Amino acid sequence: MKKLLGIMMLGTMLSTGSVHAAPIRLKDLVEFDGVRTNDLVGYGLVVGLNGTGDGLRNSPFTEEIMVNILERLGVNVTGEQFRPKNVAAVFVTGSLPPFARAGSPIDVTVSAIGDASSLLGGTLIMTPLNAADGEIYAVAQGTIIAGGVSAEGAAAAVTQGVPTSGSIPSGATVEREVAFDFAELTSLRLALRTPDFTTAGRIEAAINHSFGRHVATMLDAGTVHLNIGETHMPSPAHALGRIENIMVEPERRARVVVDQRSGTIVMGEDVRISRVAVSQGNLTLRIQEAPLVSQPNPFSPGETVVVPRTAVGIEDEPGIGLAEVRGGTSLSEVIAGLNALGVAPRDMIDILKSIKASGALHAEFIVR
């Protein structure tokens, strides 16, 4: 009922009139060429677990890294047999933000790769983080904040969330900076997050209007070229600082997104439906087994017999009759009409899929 009311309210708001998209800051519409993050990954060891670590017989790589760490610390364990239960091998991942400087902290995520049941309360030992070029750019260490909890007894266990994965806020320190001389750039490309020719043209016009000269050129639907030299700004950073807050009204494609699992329907204001007729109904078949056991009288020479009894019925639930939708109708008006008839969200999704298949729904239809 809440979903129907929510869709009805959305349909009412969109059907009251054409609402233009609100202007958005340029920094929220594009990515600046060269201003990007870099993924980091490392392989390390978590200690201090309460008996929830790797079983070393099933995870020999855990024993190997533990031996390497102890030997680096001056502890000779060659030939020793030990089976601790409070250590676990993990992958450590993080992202190096743009313009990160040596000494800057970054967040990291820790995930178990062996058969450890939980990382709750563990501490990550110093782990180097490598980028795609194989160089070490950060070092991680710290106490893990696990994302779940687990408990077990002699005959039962319960797990909530994912206790084998956790995070360490500001758990890594940048040790190497990415070699990129941003101040020497003479031109820059703006990459649209959602490529569109109309939006790219509006970005070009807004930037040129801001500087009062032709400094931006649209190359294609997803790229706008910025000539930094023509901006007469002291540096590329000053130029981007000026243009990133320019307000631009983006153009959006007509799109309908439905989630069949939750019955959610999201639609754009520009969705239109051509003239089409719709009829919908539900047919339900019910079969119920109620066998009857017939037993003979005590001490009689009879046998127990199971007599099958089956109840079969067909229910034709009331749906919507043949209804005609006039051409040019917005989808919000159709949704409001279906809500008024009491159509469930999942039936509404089936109707929209059928309208799309007939070619009457003029929008990109996405099913998740």
From TrEMBL:
Presence of the UniProt keyword Signal in the record: yes
BP term (GO), one: bacterial-type flagellum-dependent cell motility
Signal peptide location: 1-21
Keyword annotations from UniProtKB, A to Z: Bacterial flagellum, Cell projection, Cilium, Flagellum, Periplasm, Signal
Similarity annotation: Belongs to the FlgI family.
The protein's assembly and partners: The basal body constitutes a major portion of the flagellar organelle and consists of four rings (L,P,S, and M) mounted on a central rod.
Function summary: Assembles around the rod to form the L-ring and probably protects the motor/basal body from shearing forces during rotation.
Protein name, as recorded: Flagellar P-ring protein
Originating organism: Cognatiyoonia koreensis
